Amino acid sequence: MNKIKISSVSYTNSKPFVYGLQHSELINEIDLSLDIPSDCAAKLIDNKVDIGLIPVAAIPFVPNANIIGSYCIGSVGAVDSVFIFSNLPIEEVRTVKLDPQSRTSNNLAKVLLKFHFKKEVEFTTDANADTDALVLIGDRTFGKKTTYPFAYDMGKEWMNFTGLPFMYAAWVANKQIPESFVKEFDKALLMGLNHREKLISELPIEKGIDLHDYLMHKLDFTLSEEKLKAKDLFLKLITEL
Ligand SMILES: C=C(O[C@@H]1C=C(C(=O)O)C=C[C@H]1O)C(=O)O
User: In the record, which residues are listed under signal peptide (predicted)?
Assistant: First the structure.
């Protein structure tokens, strides 16, 4: 049988999932690559992989997209790695630089600025642009909370706005995946989540982030009804931007 091709996120947030996959029997049946989120999405859209841990904002662009399994990358309130970092208070921000590695959080920034903060701002993808604020996600945010005058945690702001948790990335397939595989896949992911304490003890200490708090409490990996509701609302709001 051909191996099932899977693209997972290369950031610390996904290490429990990767640990579970790498330490299960399933590793012999899959071809696992680790990519930045925008590449996870591109690979799934281009059918270079069968399953991807992809930004939820990219789901509408995946042919035959179906969310599989019981886990995701989410948070119930603050997440500690998805920020608008700013030189000015949000009320005064006029220009925002987007993060090329992101699909969800760039759109989340647009949704929050328009519907929550009620601001019309200019967005740019030009890496060299000098802007009032910028979107940044993943490990590159570690330690930066205190280097900018203002740091807006978008998981927290989404909660303030909607009262809902948030789902940043979901396991999505672009074709029907056998149920028996999904069952084993879920088992491997859960095993990884259950080994977080061990995994954390082996991670290098990062300045400016409490990795134990991040992986055990800030991130919330359960694909709950509430997170699905948040995903639907988020995708609807994107169409109204
Ligand atoms: C919590 C995070 O969630 C993520 C944010 C994503 C995005 O903005 O597109 C995609 C995948 C996840 O890695 C993070 O990267 O810090």
Answer: none
